[in-house]
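batch job 7 of whatever, protein = 5-methyltetrahydropteroyltriglutamate--homocysteine methyltransferase
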Amino acid sequence: MLVGSQDLLLPTTMVGNYPNPRWYDGHAYAVYPKGEFVYDAISREAFEDAVGAIVHDQEAAGIDVISDGKVYGGDSPYGQILYHYVERMTGYKLSGPPIGLPIYSTLYAPTCVGEVRREYPFHLATLRAVRKATKKPVKISYTGIQVLAAATNNQYYKETKELALAIAKSFNEDFKELADAGCDIIQVDEFVWPYGMGDWEVEVLNTAMEGAGCQFWVHTCWGNYSGTPGYFPDDEEREFGAWVLDHRPTAASAPERAHAIFPKVLGANIDALNYEVGRTGPDDLKPLADNEWSKAFVAGVVDVKSTVTETADEVADRIRLVLEFVPAERVGLTTDCGLINLPRMIAASKLRALVDGAAIVREELAERGM
């Protein structure tokens, strides 16, 4: 699989959030800058040290593609998934109703009250900190455009698509800046795609990526807020309105997962698609074959909702299932989702299991002359 300029067999990486070092969270210096770290040398040192610690865990495990870990600082990491971006764009007010989507409804929907434009860089400081800590290929993660649009209390644009296009143009500026600064891969986390895709999601994603000279991956998943999977609300919750209680009735249906994104995702100008297999099993791989997916597929083969670390053999078994649907030269390997809800010790052990499982399968492929 092509990673940057390198051709790697079954490259390993991780998805999204990683547990921050405990000394970093909850302190006054745990602040991601708007713009540059110009005046506050302590914040810059703390941020770069925190990123460096997360990079070290990945390198110690033997991970091939190093992720940023989504070190935001300040509020809860899931809140910052939204607020980090709206705080760096014009047109937003940081108040609004609860997000009307189960498991995310303890977060509020920021209100769009004016024209949306990028005011400050989103992840330039992130890239610089990761690049400082490693010489391996680097992957920087962004919250998805549909996620931000869906989680916005829109009081300015006539349609959600207009808002999404404005966000896409802001992202495009940032993507180009990161590509020019040497980013190998940009990952866009569209974790609401399984709830349904309309007629504009792929268009705005392609708009955001246009002209940016790096690889693009899309990660989609079935929810991991508070370590729980997503679900569709039942009639009682719809009548309630905002689903703040998230009581997860046993009759609530799960999202249709991978089936919900095909065939529309075929039109996305991305280099790789990623979603979980570790927890959900091989059924979610069927749409890849049914729709003749010809690009790279990065398979989540480590269950992030379990505190039990898989053995290398268990990970290898999951990889073998993936290879029944996608040839080895187009497969990458990762965690199902972010590891943020796990203790850092367990998160690190799961990364080692991922690497060890990949090594087992690589050796088997080598014996077959692949």
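notes: The chain has a mean pLDDT of 89.
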